[in-house]
Amino acid sequence: MYIHQVATYLPTQVVTNEHFTQLNGLSDEWIIERTGIRERRKAAPGENTNTMAVAATERALAAAPDFAQGLDLIVGATYTPHDTIFTVAHAVQIAVGVDDIPTVSISSACSSLLNAVEIVEGYFAMGKASRALVVVSEHNTAYNNEQDTMAGHLWGDGAATLLISKERLSPDDIRIVDVVTGGAATRGKASTAVTLKPVEKGIVMPFGKDVFIHACQYMARVTTQLLERNTLGVDDVRYLIPHQANLRITRNVLEQLGLPEDRAVSNIQFLGNTGCAGAAIGLADTWPNLQQGDRVVITVFGGGYSYGAMLLEK
């Protein structure tokens, strides 16, 4: 499989740490020390998970205008839906104007990007599709309680779209070499550490330390597993793009893997935690810098303790 194009959409409104200092007394220094976050984006009135997904998709297709002609699969991913019935994938299908193709939406928290890619992998393997659109979009601020001093300052909004084909369409395409995912819902406080129960309440994270510990463990472990499966070492990796949850998690994973900090892609400083869109946004940021032969690993971890890693090669 090949990624032909990736594009993003970020809301224009920037929310700095000063907002939370005034709101609930959390200082800029305190937030940066514990999370690395300096600012985040917030969707404007009238924007939502679906509109951001459509905007990212329009940008991707504008850069690859011929791709939609053979599009035969749409996979959307989010844990912050605008509508649980008319899903993000349906909204994107209307925007691209392609009828009678599989249109699927999934959620496995912040690791959903890689599960969406695996769905594409399955459709391609079964001969049911050959050209897919994967869109990841999060409207965290719609569900967030900013007064929550444990997690209210973490979240940002954004979306990204990947155009994926079974065959190479351009010399600049990036090959998806391998994907590994798993679930660790039986471990630690997976069932309660991070929850979003729309009928009851928004995003809460009562056990952030447990999330931190397991995120560090699993992102490093699955990255090592992925590299070993492909007979590679960390020195063969040009960039590591981790889930953008916490800069301290990224640094911990780098230390476990023995990678220098300049090999990691990080956007959490300016975007906050954008959920399953964060790593895809990181890939879009990295795309212009990739040279032929470069390898990239995306590694993710989400609430419910789902995890995964994906190996890419230019």
UniProtKB/TrEMBL annotation:
**Can you cite a GO biological process for this protein?**
fatty acid biosynthetic process
Q: What is this protein called?
A: Ketoacyl-ACP synthase III
Q: What top-level branch of life does the organism fall under?
A: Bacteria
- Which residues are in the Beta-ketoacyl-[acyl-carrier-protein] synthase III C-terminal domain? 227-313
Any one Pfam family here would be ACP_syn_III_C
Q: Which UniProt keywords apply?
A: Acyltransferase, Transferase
Coiled coil (UniProt feature) = none
SUPFAM superfamilies referenced in this protein's UniProt entry, alphabetically: Thiolase-like
Every Beta-ketoacyl-[acyl-carrier-protein] synthase III N-terminal domain range = 106-180
InterPro entries cross-referenced by the UniProt entry:
ACP_syn_III_C, ACP_syn_III_N, Thiolase-like
UniProt organism field: Hymenobacter aerilatus
Q: Name one GO molecular function term.
A: 3-oxoacyl-[acyl-carrier-protein] synthase activity
